[in-house]
Sequence to fold (305 residues):
Amino acid sequence: MPEFAKIICMSKPADEILGPVSSSYVSQRLRLHYVDWGNQHKPPLLLVHGGRDHARSWDWVARDLRRDWHVIALDLRGHGDSSWTIGGHYTLSEFVLDLAQLVDLLDVARITLVGHSLGGAVSIQYTAVFPDRVDKLVAIEGLGPPPEMAKRLEQRPPWERISDWIKQVREFSARQPKRYPSVEAAAKRMQQENPFLSAEQAQHLTVHGMNRNEDGSYTWKFDNYVRVFYPQRYDAGETRELWGRITCPTLLMHGSQSWAGDPSEDGRADLFQDARVCNIDGAGHWVHHDRLEVFLSELRGFLED
Fold:
């Protein structure tokens, strides 16, 4: 065994060294990737990452929960090691389809969902469509835009939304993915995006979030087209109907320094049948990275209640 490997093995417990097993499945003719942290005899818990992220961003959370749960984390289409869609079309409903397909393939009657940002929105919508399949739901900054922003989106005329979408698609069709000379350079860029991240966190997220190109440079794994907003109308009434169907205990987690708004103050938490809000001080949008230990404590308290 190499000397550096011996050092790692002596300094960390075995269950922190062993990583997850990679697997894949098919949804809408796309090969999608997920990782399985083992313990199939434990209750199933599915982790759903946010936009431009990947399944391995949950590693710190998964290592903590794997002792008591059968933890699985998926790469949404267009992210991580999952396939990109032909034409670059990504809608919330398609992400929900992928989640539904995975839950069915796991052959479990009920599941617990933990999602961040886009993954939180996907988990919420899945639970609204299949309320009898979810035991508990945790949405970390997953409610979308705050009410004042949502109201502006709802009022936009359809021709304006479609025109903006066409403009975005054309811009991205001409845009080449940014290439980085090293993983370290890309990690620094990630820390600029989220200054709460430690150097160790940024390095880990970058290593699992990049592909190496033929010329030796690095690019992010996600499809640039996931940034494009599909021009469907934001419907506040439809959102109220969907969230009102969710019957399971729900935890809405919010970072005190995030742009996303406090659901306990703006009324969004009241749209759920059984929801409570957990505000994490000193955290931004990536609550589970920014204040990991506090996040895990609150999460475990909710799951074990």
Notes: Strands lie at 21-27, 30-36, 44-48, 70-74, 111-116, 134-140, 210-212, 218-220, 250-255, 275-280. Confidence is low (pLDDT under 50) at residues 1-11. The first strand starts at residue 21 and ends at 27. Residues 158-173 form the longest helix (16 residues).
